[in-house]
Amino acid sequence: MSSDRELESLLDRVAKKILEKKEGEQILYRTKIVGVDSPHGIYRYNRSTREWVMYERDGECFKPYSDGYYVIYFDNTKCPACRIYDLFWYPFVETIGRNLGNVEFIIILCEWFARKCESKAASNSFKKFEIIASPTTVLLEARNGEITRQEMLRGIKKIDELLKSILQFTGIKIE
User: Residue 79 has what pLDDT?
Assistant: First the structure.
């Protein structure tokens, strides 16, 4: 039991280091849930504070910021299916996902794909990844700053489906 707490503490410390602001980087917005009224942009889940932190709004499209795996939820505020997916996504990230240490969780939010978006970075990300349906979840593997592997999951994924897809993609074993 104490080893579980120690592991969680270690994962939280590692996440803090990864998520510490770099020189000149500023946190634009933070929230417990990225909702329909949240500003458009690119959000990253901070395991230690259990918050979604917007770190890019006006820059280029999403780029991996370290080696590892990324699970990216492309969300449209005007998407009814996304609101259903939220019922599975947020509990997954908060319970199971936060313990998958080498996996980063990202949300890219616009109103309606790249066509109606108040964030240049989010709009460019929808274009770069050719997102034509929502919700879409993109699984990425990055090495040396480059995307080495990518898989798209279209539509609503329940918690068990999301977990199975992530475990297959990453090769992570859960006991």
Answer: 97
